[in-house]
Amino acid sequence: MRISVDTEACTGHALCFGIAPDVFVLDELGYNVTPAGEVAPELEEQARRGALSCPEMAITIEE
Length: 63
Ligand code: SF4
Hints:
Elements: E1 2-5, H1 15-19, E2 37-38, H2 44-53, E3 59-62
Antiparallel strand pairs: 1-2, 1-3
The structure holds iron/sulfur cluster (SF4).
């Protein structure tokens, strides 16, 4: 699984981090600055739930 974040679409709700703190990285203002890349298998479910939580649909998952 790969994740990527559209930083232009992110509005800094931090909901993704609340659900998937082991996957996503926020800056000091709460914006998602996670580098695009592979997700460890044990974190895939957390990543999916975090992506679904984003009201801006700023997180893309490629299975
Ligand atoms: S939930 Fe979406 S909009 Fe909010 S910080 Fe995470 S990626 Fe950004």
